[in-house]
Request: fold
Amino acid sequence: MSTKIAIFASGSGSNAENIIQHFAQNKAVEIALILSNKPDAFVLERAKKWQIPSVCFTKSDFTETNNISTILAENNIDFIVLAGFLLKIPATLIQQYPHRIVNIHPALLPKYGGKGMYGQHVHEAVVANKEKESGITIHYVNEQYDEGNIIFQAKCSILSSDTPALVAEKVHQLEYTHFPTIIEKLITD
Ligand code: GAR
Reply:
């Protein structure tokens, strides 16, 4: 039996697609479902392209009903990956998937984490503070934004001339290199 992964994403989904690609030839792992809270998120196009079923839901669906929990259970999902997903995960879902929900954050937590710190906002803050390095953090999800146990971090250096867009590019490269292999390690262990 294969391990079934669900990926939650709110935006472009380039990480989601990179993970899909990574596991495409791996019979032991199936990216079984893509979920998004944004009807116009490009990740939904990527799901179509790879013929992966997708689900779009509203914030209140997610926080006030058990609909998403039910969908995950019905699809026999074993493991959840957050790849640019911007809503807080409800406690019931964390209890349903203990130590089986991971998130990627585009900075070196605990710096530049918490509510409002996502995507471009993170890179802008890093550049404004003249940081010499940034990076990625892969961590388990708990009930606080960006505070679950850290699984893995990788760093990149930042030049004083780097723009937030350039930092974003460096961070994305780290994400593409490490996220799929860390997921593979976690579900294999
Ligand atoms: C990624 O850089 C991810 O780390 C970040 O959003 C981007 C999504 O890009 N996540 C967060 O900021 C979560 N707090 P993508 O849609 O192209 O994968």
